[in-house]
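Working notes for the structural subgroup meeting. M.R. asked for a predicted model of this chain before we commit to crystallization trials. I am recording the input and output together here so anyone reviewing the notebook later can reproduce the run.

Input as submitted:
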Amino acid sequence: MALDHIDLTDLDFFATGDVAGAFALIRATDPIHWQEKRPGRGFWSLTRFEDLLTVYRDAQTFMSGRGVTLHFGSGEEDSGLDKSMIMTDPPRHAKMRQVISRRFTPRAVAPFADRIRTIARAIVDDVVERGECDFVTEIAARLPTAAICDLMGIGREHWDLMFAITNETIGRHDQEYARGRTGRETVMDAHARAAQFFTDLAAERRRNPGDDLVSSLVNGAMGGEPLTEAEIVANSYILILGGQETTRNAISGAMLAMIQNPAELAKYKADTFAVPAIEEFLRWTSPITNIMRIATRDTTLQGKSIRAGDRVVLWNLAANRDPAQFNDPQSFDVTRTPNDHVAFGYGEHFCLGANLARLEMRIMLNEVTTRMRDIELAGPIERLRSNTVAGIKRMPLRFRPAASSHAALH
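Returned structure, recorded in token form:
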């Protein structure tokens, strides 16, 4: 593999290629790497852990408000997502985040554990006696959808719509979800359905407020000023996307890693609630592969001259395999500690739902590894065609049900 042959905008490469190898080469030879395969569409790729932290910490020099993915220009700028907290810069970002951040603290999330456990148990009930399933569609994807919809007060009859909207937004360049449309057409169709749904839901919450996240957005205020309609809709949309996508891919990727590393699966089963295991799952999968920033001024980073307006891409998955930060980073080790990864980002844009995601992962993977034995792949896995999300679309498994179909949880 030669450096000048690597194209980080080639989505097929992310679905089928040696992505870890490519980033190891970039990180070792040109860790702040400029790529411009198309005139005027160049960008910097940051691949070292400390360089990512430098940019994450400096929201004044590296802004979020002009796009956070390499695909900005294919729908986000027309969707209203620039009104969401993920694309809002200081000081408004912190004020917007505070409207709902208290709902995601460890103390606030902990009481939700029983509900998540009930959902996870029912999901496994549906497949365990069959001895086979598609782990992604029948297990990993179902829990996050149910959990975030519960928190947002979205009724069961709308869960399929939320799932479809998320798939089409995240998988806009994957023909399974695009179905003959362009990426822009696909994402704009999803945006339109999401905007209509959340506009209607916000109106209903004004009439009948409840104890849910949408009610918090509708009734919340920033410095005494209520959120605008566009901000309520955009943040509801971001919550449904983030609440589903990150967790399902972390759960799927973690299960795959344990199947491919049986000794680590045995260690995990010996202590399924071990905190280091969850952090290793997140480091290893890096479900959000990158996040983008735009330079607001000319600056220098490790000797590289970055110009105002340049796109700067923070490759979380590369930083999470940086040997300067992690001992033997290419090894999957469920007992790894310390494990200060950037799977959830860093700084003021640190993932709002991180505590909820960790709880869902613990409970779901505990349920699966307790109630399924001799888990193995039953066919090829299929990855999402995306360089933004490390997604697995399908992962067929075979297994034997444990002696007790309702094994006790820790």
